[in-house]
Amino acid sequence: MPALNIRQLLLNVLVVALVVAMLLPLFYMITMSFRTATEIAEAPLGLPDRLAWENYAQAFGGMNYVRAVINSVGITISVTVLTALLGSMAAFPLARNTSGFARIFILLVALGLATPNFVTITPIYVIFRDLGLLDTYLGIILAFTALNLPLAVFFYVGFIGAIPKDLVEAAKLDNCSDWQAFWYVVRPLLGPATATLSLFVMLMVWNDFTYPLLLLTDKDKFTVTISVYRFVGNQNIQPDMLFPAAVLGSLPLLILFAIFQRRIVAGVTAGAVK
Amino acid sequence: MTEVTLQSVVKRYGDVQVIHGVDLEVNAGEFCVFVGPSGCGKSTLLRMIAGLEETTEGKMHIGERDVTHMDAAKRGVAMVFQTYALYPHMTVRDNMAFGLKMSGVPKAEAEAKVAEAAKILKLDPFLDRKPKALSGGQRQRVAIGRAIVRAPDVFLFDEPLSNLDAELRVQMRLEIARLHKELSATMIYVTHDQVEAMTLADKIVVLRAGIVEQVGSPLDLYADPDNLFVAQFIGSPKTNILKGIVIGSEGDSLRVHLPQLADTELDVACGTHMEPGKDVCVGLRPQDFGPDGDVTIPVPVEVVESLGGVSYAYANLPGLEEPFCIEHRGRSRPEGSVIQARFTSATALLFDPESGKRIR
Q1: Is A246 part of a structural domain of the chain?
Q2: Distance from C-alpha of A261 to C-alpha of A59, rounded to nearest angstrom
C-alpha cells in the first residue's frame, strides 16, 4: 500500500516540523541564556562557547527571583481558587434553569469570553484607581478573577448540566437548601472540570504581562513576567540577563506540569467525556 | 403510618396539561402502585407528591397536613429514584446518613439508624464502599436504605427496578414486599411493569394521559376492568378484543355473535338491556381458555411461546389487527395445526366500542 505509506510519511514529516517549530524558541532561549553579552552581540544565533552559569546568578538577584515567584504563585493560586469557586457557584443555577432569562445570561457570559482583554484595560485602570486598588495584591487578583470568570462560568454550565438532576433532587429531599445541594453534592463532583479549568487559568495568570505591568508599580509586588521585563530598558536590552530570567520565569510552571502531568491529562480527558 | 389524599390535582406546564384533576386516597400503610404506559403522567404525579414538581391546582394532604405547596424536605416523604441517585463521592454509610446530617440529627443517633437500616438490607459489609464499587442490586438497596433511615411517613418509589436485570428484579421485588411488611409504611410505587404492579400492590392506580382510568386491588382490576384500556393493560398477554354484535337477550344475559371468531355465538351475563344489532367489543383473556368450557372454537395456531409451565399460542384471525392469543397447557407445540380451544362464555367481558366503557 504505497499510497498509504506516503501519506503516513508526509504526516510524520509535518508532525516533526511542528514539534521543531515549537521547540526552536525554547531551544534558542536556553542556549542564549548560557552565552555572554559579547558572544550574543557577535553572533546572535550562535551556540554558547561555554556555559556561562554566572548569567543565572546575576539574573536571579537582578529580578528578585524568589520574591517574584512568591508573588506569582500567590496571585495565581488565589485567582484560580476564586475563579473556580465563583464560576461554579454562578454556573449552578444557570445550568439548572431552562428559562429564557438564564439562556440570555449565559449568552452575556459568552460575550465576556469574546471581549479582548485589551478593551477592558482602561476601564479597569480607572475604576481601580478610584477604588484605591492600584498596586495592591487584591486589585490584581480581582482583575484576573474577573477576566477568567466568563470562561469558568461557561465551562461549569456545561459540566453541571451533565450531572444527573436526580442527585440534586435527592439532596433536596435530604433536607438540603439550594446552597447545601451545591456545596455538599454538586461541588465535590466538579473535580475533573476544576482541574482542567485551573490549568487554563493558571497558564493565563502566570503568563500574563499586561495587567501586572499596568496595575503594579511596587517592585516587591512584581510577578515573574514583569520581573523578566526589567531587563528590557527603553534604550537597550540586557540579553545575558533577559534569557536566563526568562528560563527562570518559566521553570516553576514547567516543574508543576512535570509533576502533575498525569493528573492534568486525566482532568482534560475527563472533562471532555463526562 | 400516614394516609395520602389527592383532591382534583392538576399539573400544567405552560398551556400543556399533563395531570387532569386526579382524586385519590392512599390509606395508611397501603402499598399503592401507579401503573400506565410511558408518558401517562405516573412519574409526574409521584414527583408532585414528593414536592419535586409544583402542583398547579388542587389539594394534597399527607396525614392531616396540607402539603400542596410545602417544601419537599418538609413533607415527610423519602424517594427512591430509578437512577438510584446515590452521591458518588460519598461512601454507602455517608450516603445513608446524609439526610440525617442535614436535618441536624446527632451523629451517634444517625450512626445507629444507619446500622439498623444496613442490617435490614444486608448492607453491613459494604458500608465503607463508594457506590461505584457496588452492583446494581446493592446500589438499589443503598437507595432504599437512604429512605429507611429517615423514617418517612410515606415512601415513594419511581420505577426503582427498571435498571436491574430480570433475575435481580424478581429478587428486589420480593425484598420490597418484605420491607413493606416489616415497616408497615405507606408506600407509593411507580412502574410500567404490570407484573410488579400485580405482585406488590394493595391498590393499583391505572393512569392514561394524566387521567385515572381505574383504582382497585390487583385482582379486581384483572377480573372486573372498568374499560377497554384497563382490560388490555392489566394481564399479560393482553386481553383479546373482538368485534361482537348483539343478536338477542334473555333475562340478565345477552347473546352475542362474534364474526371474527368463526361466527361463534356466546351468552354473556349482562344487566344492561341492549337491542339486537348493536355493536359491542368482547374481551377474552388468554388465561380463560382451557380444557373446560361451554364454547369451543377452532384456532389455527401459527406461533407458540413456551414459558415452561405455561405456553401461549398465537393465531392471526381475519379482521383482527393483533394476533389472537390463548393459553395452551401441555408440552405439545401445535404450530401450523388447528386446535379446538374451549372457554366459559361467562368469562367474556363486554365493552362499548365508542367510549370503551365496560357494559355490565
Answers
A1: no
A2: 28
Kindly give, in sequence order, each residue whose CB lies less than 8 Å from that of residue B78, ignoring residues fewer than 6 positions away.
Answer: A173, B99, B146, B147, B148, B150, B152, B154, B155, B156
Count of domains observed in chain A:
1
- Give the three cell numbers for residue B112: 445507629
User: Residue A59 falls within a domain, yes or no?
Assistant: no
Binary contact (A173, B77; C-beta < 8 A): yes
User: Looking at the domain assignment, is residue A50 inside a domain?
Assistant: no
Residue ranges making up the domain that contains A205 = 64-232
pTM, two decimal places: 0.81
Q: Give the span between the Cα atoms of A168 and A63, in whole angstroms.
A: 50
Is position A274 within any domain? no
Distance from the A189 Cα atom to the nearest Cα atom in chain B, whole angstroms: 7
Local structure of residue B68 (DSSP, 8 states):
T
CATH number at residue A184: 1.10.3720.10
B102 with A185: Cβ contact below 8 A: no
Rounded to whole angstroms, the Cα distance separating B187 from B26 reads 9
Tens-digit pLDDT profile for residues A96-144: 887 888 889 888 888 888 888 888 889 999 999 999 999 999 999 999 9
pLDDT digits (tens, 9 = 90+) for B266-305: 888 888 888 888 999 999 999 999 888 888 888 899 999 9
